[in-house]
Specification:
single chain
């Protein structure tokens, strides 16, 4: 009976390994190939988001303090995933629109803003209240990576 248990355990381990290798081989985009932009005037939040993206394998991350800098980067370089603060001039809504018009998946974040209801309408579910839970942001990043690799 012990032999059967050990045998089953080894088969399960091998099966998991084969599935992991299959996912890596057939992924259309590896996380390291994805790009992200973080736009927020809060240095600690930019650092946290950058580290979370890196930890999930997205290594090409640009981080800027102003929406003006974010819009300039979006004009020069394509991004897959964008997180922007709402409460800046110009508004984070402009970064969101610019990013999504170029095919990026974007999220608007804010603690409070007079434009909050407008941003919620524009972002259609891609709106995060600060402080957002790290788990919620981690799930967003993981789901995005998986959406780029539907067979995974």
């Amino acid at each position: 009976m012990l032999f059967i248990s050990i045998y089953y355990f080894q088969i399960t381990k091998i099966e998991r390994f084969i599935n992991a290798v299959y996912k890596l081989v057939f992924m259309t985009k590896l996380p390291a190939e994805l790009t992200a932009l973080v736009v927020d005037d809060e240095v600690p939040l930019r650092g946290i988001l950058t580290r979370m993206l890196n930890r999930n394998g997205i290594l090409n991350v640009d981080s800027v303090a102003t929406t003006k800098e974010g819009i300039e980067l979006l004009e020069r370089k394509p991004y897959n995933l964008v997180f922007t603060d709402l409460n800046q001039q110009p508004s984070g809504i402009e970064v969101y629109r610019n990013a999504t018009s170029k095919g990026a998946q974007a999220y608007i974040m804010t603690g409070y803003s007079p434009d909050m209801s407008i941003a919620q309408d524009v972002a259609k579910g891609h709106f995060l209240m600060k402080p957002s839970s790290l788990q919620e942001i981690d799930i967003i990043i993981k789901e995005y990576i998986m959406s780029q690799n539907p067979q995974s």
